[in-house]
Amino acid sequence: MQSLQGKKIAILVEDGFEQVELTSPRQALENAGAQTDIVSPKQDQVKGWNHTNWGDTFQVDVPIERAKANNYDALLLPGGVMNPDKLRMNKQAVQFVRDFFEQKKPVASICHGPWMLVEAGVVQGRKVTSYPSLQTDLKNAGANWVDQEVVVDQGLVTSRNPNDLPAFNRKLVEEVAEGAHARQRA
């Protein structure tokens, strides 16, 4: 297993994120030695979504207005339908995502999370995957959408759904270990 000792990862969420899409990658990152911070427009706590019901409550580590991409080595964008739909209406959250691409840092997004990539304007010319219902949005934003369990395009890791988490987590840890990508397009 690769060591992520000294790496710090931001996990951007709002209420309604698919809980396992936060907890499983977070565990993989922390098992590899990384520190993770939950970043959110919510001030104190965010509530997960567990398949068809509300899930657990999680402590917000850094409010979005205080979060800076240059304080992190990578960004994780869990899915869930409500989560990215709320986040993409928040200008600070969208800029936070865009900043990771401008700084050429790894970004990982699963399920409905790529809606934030569309909103941030960072998928043009990139190969990505997502939950199938987002493929038209991603194609309209200029992405090359494919139906694969995990896709890596110059530091951007995408997957379709919770069933893809084992492959997603492996690639996420690999990309964080590699660090910034000189060729990554902003």
As for the number of domains, it is 1
The amount of beta strand, in percent, is 25-35%
CATH architecture title: 3-Layer(aba) Sandwich
> Order of strands in the sheet with the most strands?
6-3-1-7-8-12-11
Average predicted local confidence, pLDDT: 95
Task: Please give the CATH class.
Answer: Alpha Beta
Q: Which structural class matches the secondary elements?
A: alpha/beta
| Rg result | 14 Å
The percent range for helix content is 25-40%
The CATH H-level superfamily is Class I glutamine amidotransferase (GATase) domain
How can the largest sheet be summarized?
A: 7 strands, mixed
Coarse morphology: globular
Query: Which regions have little confidence, pLDDT < 50, spanning 5+ residues?
Result: none
Give the number of helices. 6
Written as H for each helix and E for each strand, in order along the chain, the element string is EEHEEEEEHHEHEHEEEH
Distance between the termini: 29 Å
The total beta strand count reads 12
List its salient traits:
single chain; 186 residues; Rossmann fold; 7-stranded mixed sheet; 3-stranded mixed sheet
Summed up, what is this model?
With 186 residues, this protein is of the alpha/beta class. Helix content is 30%, strand content 26%.
Written account of the structure:
The protein has 186 residues and is α/β, with parallel strands linked by helices. It has a single domain, classed as Class I glutamine amidotransferase (GATase) domain (Rossmann fold, 3-Layer(aba) Sandwich). The protein contains six helices and twelve strands. The strands form three sheets. It has a seven-stranded mixed beta sheet, sandwiched between helices. β9, α5 and β10 (144-145) form a beta-alpha-beta unit. α1 crosses α6. The longest helix is centred in the last third of the chain and has 14 residues, at 165-178. The protein starts with 7 loop residues before the first strand and ends in an 8-residue tail after the last helix. The model has no long low-confidence stretch (mean pLDDT 95).
